[in-house]
């Protein structure tokens, strides 16, 4: 961690406010929604269900980084428009990924929080570009990124002028292939002791297995995560992306019910 | 997991009773004590403190697997005698590691639970030897063992006739070097859904960092672990082994206090 | 590898010609030069020495992806100009990294081969951008990229219309920290049996240790690599980047001398 | 490597002689034979073919460490007897694995070199037991063993009194699953610069793929390995163990022919 100038300043937790949501405070922040924006109907249906359950931040991909160029790559700008429309309808904030420095301005027009995905954690021109805007950045951990590399990626954003950074643990790549990735929950208290960044956990990508989303969410809340990012789709079996790890709104409601007592146990509120 | 015959039988949790302790039931089982048995005084002091805090199983190494042959390798049989003496004095059960098939009978005379350490997870003669005794076996996950390999290691013990197996996640080896290992808490619900083995978590070895023992314990309990194995030493600064990850009895008492509400939240009792 | 359409076509090796160099043919291709372009003097001195030794492709970074934003990030466009100037002076071809889709056109004006660095192997907008130009692309393996992910990254470039792809193994991230990365030489024959891409090896980044560059080069040539990419600096002790893995021109000359018999043994020529 | 006392002494290569073979000298040592001893016919057929090709050391497993207890676990003492019989018939030396400290004396009666397999690299009682005999030990690298851990394992043997140690790189576990393991050829020159141990490479276990045995052998010889350990079976399709990575004697003869020029290029002889 030698060489970090801004990321390890020892100050109070950097609390970030986005519409009704407060990230890094006493309330567990929930970001939920589909892997990819597929249609108005899909998004609205999901958002309304989530809104009723108290979710304040809607996630959904418009530009999708996919291993294969032949996979569904997202609706692009049309996806952004749908996100904004649905967010306005429901009063939710929107978090969505940006992959290209050229598109930072465009995405910033529609989104409340810009996500840097794990494949782009060391995409330095992109980090510099999002460092120049005045919106919160959700910086996912690279799939083989050490703690130090992750904090230096945040440092790029800080050094460019943006200190509204939320970190997101989403699993790392290990020799274990049963799960999509191995979730490193111990990074949560490490981040919290070294930095002032809020840190959330994405159990959907970390495990890739629907049945593990609930238990990993429980573990994440207990270990002190500031929030959760969870994939929810009205019909996972027909999702264009990551259906096998998505919850239905009903399953997500059940998850909220089950994590509430753990929130209480660690002194966090949940809406 | 193709090829497993006994380890994946779908039956109820295999509840294991050892003296006053019940492993795999509704009570969170606590195993605590020093990395290595160093002296009567050290062990008794630790055990009495732990006993008062409700710990029913005392851990302590008599035969120590150390990377270097010049490190403290344990007191051997004398260590076993001290463990038994202190266990009898306090009414606690004892868990201790066995490294050599030749010593299984010896260790079984003194210990209530025999531990197979991570370096020996695929020491097949040792697995076969502990499969032939009538005492519970604590089988730690190998440091680079896949889920499948771990279950096949258990299968060796089962096939030899011993079905009293407790699994222990103690961190896996990854590219991340900030922590000693990376704790894979997601393995806990996987084990619980696939097998009938109780599974506990060892946050001391998983992280190697004293300050992380508490938060990882919280996460482990919330995700559903059946118990915790924690290194406690009356004077970590002078420990002959793993001092930097050991808690004092006072810190351990604090840990218990902090995990109690989480136990309650997930429906577990704690003594 | 299911889903690949273009990368695994079974045809003859795709031979790529750049100025005097032929990549994928019977001659071992050598790419050498400093990690970063630092000055006209440094670059010219290096290039002249390399040219005399038969090197046809000069490497040098103008845009440098560095973990820390406070490290030397390269001379940018000025670095490109120096590369072009020196290349023209010496008759060498130039390979240099491009990090930003916005800069693909710019870099293509100066460079003969555009390099995609390992951190950007899954920077899909960048892959698509270099897929639209008519210059060879050197696609380095991501530091934790599987074979399949690497080939899909190439597929992005192919699908965008550019089939002049050279792959480069530069070490992968493992638990071993003695070397900077672990060089996976077995990937060379795998690539050669599955695809028509030429593949070269970068022993400098793979090991991070000067003394290992020669032996790894020997192994790479013997296993069938189509070329080597090696960092050479006139004064490694004062290099602004990666000095500890750079060879002096003299050491590089020695390396050439030592790999010549191995080239002969595997039927490769070397200039 | 701090703490090593004997393994890193800077002296000349420790040359080990076993029957007609010299390990660590100018001749590339070849160890070949079936994964497991299956029958007299299988072993004799293989040994005679290998002997004719100049192989001086016959490998074959009598005690097999297998992930599943239901796999073929070897013929045990009968396998040892067959190995000795065939070795005596052909004049070859024998290398075979020992897994149990109890069996070290037994195996030493039959074998010329005792192998410690990768799963047992940190089986310290076993290391101490083979440290007390007067036969060479082939110490394979653990599948997730760092350089330092490997050398400390050798130190256990040295400290017990046996300095006839041959190291064997057999691939390490990484995220890449296309090959069985990832062969780390760069460890060869590292070992040679730090220690006096001969080091050989096992391309069969390192890759798990028949077609890769030849190219990896070429790379290993060129990088400086003192020898190769290769699985050869008269009928790989019917092998009881590791058939998919075994060569036929004919394929092995072809391999020898192809590595000869590389031996010449690096100044090694080959019988």
What does this structure look like?
- 4 copies of one chain form a homotetramer.
- Chain A is of the alpha/beta class and 271 residues long.
- Helix content of chain A is 36%, strand content 15%.
- The first copy, chain A, has 9 helices and 10 strands.
- Chain A has helices at 40-52, 77-90, 104-110, 124-130, 147-159, 187-194, 203-207, 210-223, 249-265; strands at 16-18, 21-23, 29-33, 57-59, 93-97, 113-116, 137-140, 165-169, 199-201, 227-231.
- In chain A, the strands form 2 sheets. Chain A has an 8-stranded parallel β-barrel, surrounded by 7 helices. A two-stranded antiparallel sheet of chain A has the order 1-2.
- In chain A, strand 7, helix 5 and strand 8 (165-169) form a beta-alpha-beta unit.
- The longest helix of chain A has 17 residues, at 249-265.
- The mean pLDDT of chain A is 96.
- Chain A binds chain B through residues 144, 146-148, 172, 174-179, 182-186, 188-190, 193, 206-207, 211-212, 215-216, 218-224, 261-262, 264-266, and chain B through 144, 146-148, 172, 174-179, 182-186, 188-190, 193, 206-207, 211-212, 215-216, 218-224, 261-262, 264-266.
Give the key terms.
homotetramer; 36% helix; 271 residues; 10 strands; two-stranded antiparallel ribbon; alpha/beta
Secondary-structure blueprint of this entry?
Four copies of one chain form a homotetramer.
Chain A: E1 16-18, E2 21-23, E3 29-33, H1 40-52, E4 57-59, H2 77-90, E5 93-97, H3 104-110, E6 113-116, H4 124-130, E7 137-140, H5 147-159, E8 165-169, H6 187-194, E9 199-201, H7 203-207, H8 210-223, E10 227-231, H9 249-265
Helix pairs in contact in A: 1-2, 4-5, 8-9
């Amino acid at each position: 961690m030698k060489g970090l100038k801004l990321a390890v300043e020892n100050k109070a937790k950097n609390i970030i406010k986005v519409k009704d949501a407060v990230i890094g405070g006493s309330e567990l922040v929930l970001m939920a929604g589909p892997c990819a924006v597929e249609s108005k109907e899909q998004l609205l249906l999901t958002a309304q269900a989530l809104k009723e359950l108290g979710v304040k931040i809607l996630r959904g991909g418009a530009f999708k980084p996919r291993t294969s160029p032949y996979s569904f790559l997202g609706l692009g700008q049309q996806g952004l428009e749908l996100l904004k429309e649905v967010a306005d309808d429901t009063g939710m904030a929107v978090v969505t990924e940006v992959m290209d420095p050229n598109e930072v301005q465009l995405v910033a027009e529609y989104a409340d929080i810009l996500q840097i995905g794990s494949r782009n954690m060391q995409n330095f021109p992109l980090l510099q570009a999002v460092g120049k805007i005045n919106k919160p950045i959700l910086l996912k951990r690279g799939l083989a990124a050490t703690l130090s590399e992750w904090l230096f990626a945040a440092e790029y954003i800080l050094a460019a002028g943006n200190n509204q950074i939320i970190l997101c643990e989403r699993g790392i790549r290990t020799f274990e292939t049963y799960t999509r990735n191995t979730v490193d929950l111990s990074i949560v208290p490490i981040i919290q002791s070294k930095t002032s960044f809020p840190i959330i956990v994405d159990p959907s990508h970390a495990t890739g297995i629907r049945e593990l989303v609930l238990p990993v969410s429980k573990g994440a809340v207990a270990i002190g995560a500031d929030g959760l990012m969870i994939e929810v789709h009205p019909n996972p079996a027909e999702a264009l992306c990551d259906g096998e790890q998505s919850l239905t709104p009903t399953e997500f409601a059940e998850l909220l019910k089950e994590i509430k007592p753990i929130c209480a146990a660690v002194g966090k509120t949940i809406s």
